[in-house]
Amino acid sequence: MAHEEAHHHGHHEVSVWPVGVGLGALFAVLAFTAFFQWKMPFLAVIFAGLTVVLLLGGMAGWVNEFFTTGHDEKHGKIAIVFFVGSEIIVFGTMFAAFWRAWVFNAHDWVNWVPQEMNLLMPVILTLILWASSGAIVLAEKAIEHGNVGAYNKWMAITIALGTLFVVLHVWEWIHLWHGGFTLGSNMYGTAFYMLTGFHTSHVIVGLIAMLYLLWVGLSGKIDETKTTAVVATGFYWHFVDIVWMFVATNAYFVGSIPALKTAIGGH
Q1: Using N-to-C axis directions, what is the helix angle for 41-69 and 228-248, rounded to 10°?
Q2: Mean pLDDT to the nearest integer, 80-98
């Protein structure tokens, strides 16, 4: 037994799938460069297509390899903490840009707040994300105890709630867009869609990860000995939930303060 354990820890796993992920990241940069710098949209579309194929294929193959032949070393949570740390910096720069635009355009901002802005929507979306965070916690607890059936149920509920968040958000964007509040209408429009759109892209990434984890559960490839991917995804989902509260506070409430003050003062 000791010999087998020593042999296992002395073995170095080799995988080709990270190469695909790395190339996907490279082509993502090339796609943006081709579109914005080289002014070659057709080439940008080709690079973007390669990005999607390589990233999704590489990550799917990498994770599938882990669940079929890999050993859970329990390092995934450490990795996701570093990843979330880098994401905090990215979101921080976006919040800084929003506040700069808000401060330097305070005089005109009141005229940019659309009448179609519904401040009840961010409250509803927040409650949905809170519920989804609770559901994924229950999914984690279930798989840690080897209850795959309960894990599948709670993971499916988390996905359903996350999908509802995205659908309602897109519906709201369409409503605001038709009302004239577009990405290029003014600084508020640019900042609003930048913050909410970037956050929603993270929600979609989380949904893709959870869809795969649900498939792993339904196919019987996961048990209580391989929980790192679930724990890491749950940590990422909680980060998305927490960031949303900052996004909602700034994009909706802080952004609407000038109009609210004017409305109250007018009465």
Answers
A1: 140
A2: 90
